[in-house]
Amino acid sequence: MFAALCDDDKYITEEIKKLLLEYAKDNRITIDIDEFESGEELLNSEKNYDIIVLDYQLGSTNGLTVAKELRKRNVLSSIIFLTSYPNFMIDAFEVNTFRFLLKPIDKSKFFKAIDDYIKIVDANYPITIIQNKELKKINSNEICYIEADGKYSNIHLSDKIMHCSKTLAGVTKLLPAYCFVKTHRAFVVNLHYIKSYSSDTVYLSNGESAFLSKNYQKSFQTSYMNFLKKNYVRL
């Protein structure tokens, strides 16, 4: 993931950078970060960013003006505004703002914003696979689990199985780490599809099941509990 931080307060920029790096470490993802001290610097950048964390007050200009210019250039980055002035939020909707965060930055709210972004992007992100020498695209949220098949793998969707020329490890690298977890040397499951599990089996909502080996029991349970804390509420 590529992120741009734009704030004329160096202390705030460093604080956000530390939070992003902490999030990346905790969630096993890579985040490349560029820092800008003015809106002009950001607008002069030729890079494409997934997320732009943008301060509303930027010296001689403001973040809303910068965001409007970015949208004029058809920049599709998700914009997270930082502000001490919540009244401007209504105006900011016209630039398709992803989130607003009030200063001082609340760590849990910042992490929640990144969580929400990653879920949206990863769930709809298409991956390309080769089946019988033909290229096909599927979204990661369609996959229930992946099963190793020698040097190849079988991708199990809710209603069909697709044979893939990549290995289990090769397919797994293309998928969001927060919800695809290894349960056995030959199985990786999508945590969204788990119905229940026992000491040696993970039962999925499509009626199938995957092996759960002793070597992966602890890491699987930890990943699943963390996933539930972030994605579900108790009624």
UniProtKB/TrEMBL annotation:
A Pfam family reported for this protein in Swiss-Prot or TrEMBL: Response_reg
Residue ranges constituting the HTH LytTR-type domain according to the UniProt record: 127-226
One term of GO molecular function: DNA binding
Name of the protein described by the UniProt record: Stage 0 sporulation protein A homolog
Function: May play the central regulatory role in sporulation. It may be an element of the effector pathway responsible for the activation of sporulation genes in response to nutritional stress. Spo0A may act in concert with spo0H (a sigma factor) to control the expression of some genes that are critical to the sporulation process.
Top-level taxonomic group: Bacteria
UniProt entry tagged with the keyword rRNA-binding: no
Residue numbers carrying 4-aspartylphosphate: D55
Domain spans labelled Response regulatory: 2-118
The entry's keywords: DNA-binding, Phosphoprotein
Stored InterPro entries: CheY-like_superfamily, LytR-like, LytTR_DNA-bd_dom, Sig_transdc_resp-reg_receiver
